[in-house]
Amino acid sequence: MFSEELREAAAELWQASFDHGFIQELVAGTLEEGAFRYYLLQDCYYLTHFSDAHGLLAAKTTDESVRSSQLALKKGMDEGEIAIRERYFKWLGITQEEYQKTVVAPSAYQYVNHLYRQLTTGTVATSLAALLPCYWLYHEIGVRFREVTSPNRLYQDWINTYDSPAFAENTRRQIDLLNHLAEVASEEERLAMKESFLISSQYELAFWDMSYTGETWQFGR
Ligand SMILES: Cc1ncc(CN)c(N)n1
């Protein structure tokens, strides 16, 4: 399966995500709440664009199975993961005003730009490959840490989201679509799909770093 080839190519990168201080401390419950707060603010920006990317992909494709699934996933995300973020905002006392004033960090900005680049200059298959690590890596995190209970209720709630049957099904859906598109892709397009998938995997790793260190622009913004 092409998805297995991609997973293997990303193995080292994904392992670095599992081992990252942000994830390890989140699971142990020792992660500074300020780092999680920062992550949530940046992730809300990311998820809003990630959701829009599904709509753009639906508009770009002529394949009905891709179109309908992206629209369904977009709806599920708006009502699920994005709605959960609103609950977390309340939990941590983050106001809309604070969110509006938040400066988008370089890595969050660049990750979103990679998605849009694929949607504009790439193909449907390379765009889907760019979206996939967002599902698959997080689902693996949920599964990997399902036996551990973080002493921090909020962190545990976050982990549970990605181990839920709904998230597992959405991940499976995107993996199946990727394999379906890879079957009819040329060798050149398959290489571009792999590159797109690996770039997203790099940005997933950068996202933990960004949140852990409170990344800022070099001369401010
Ligand atoms: C950056 C990022 N990547 C993935 C996910 C999981 N949808 C997320 N919430 N944020």
Automatic annotation (TrEMBL):
InterPro entries: Haem_Oase-like_multi-hlx (IPR016084), Thiaminase-2/PQQC (IPR004305), Thiaminase_II (IPR027574), Thiamine_Salvage_TenA (IPR050967). Keywords: Hydrolase, Thiamine biosynthesis. CDD domains: TenA_C_BsTenA-like. One of its GO terms (cellular component) is cytosol. GO terms for biological process: thiamine biosynthetic process. Pathway: Cofactor biosynthesis; thiamine diphosphate biosynthesis. It catalyses: 4-amino-5-aminomethyl-2-methylpyrimidine + H2O = 4-amino-5-hydroxymethyl-2-methylpyrimidine + NH4(+); thiamine + H2O = 5-(2-hydroxyethyl)-4-methylthiazole + 4-amino-5-hydroxymethyl-2-methylpyrimidine + H(+). Coiled coil: none annotated. Homotetramer. Belongs to the TenA family. NCBIfam families: salvage_TenA. Catalyzes an amino-pyrimidine hydrolysis reaction at the C5' of the pyrimidine moiety of thiamine compounds, a reaction that is part of a thiamine salvage pathway. This is Aminopyrimidine aminohydrolase. It comes from Vagococcus allomyrinae.
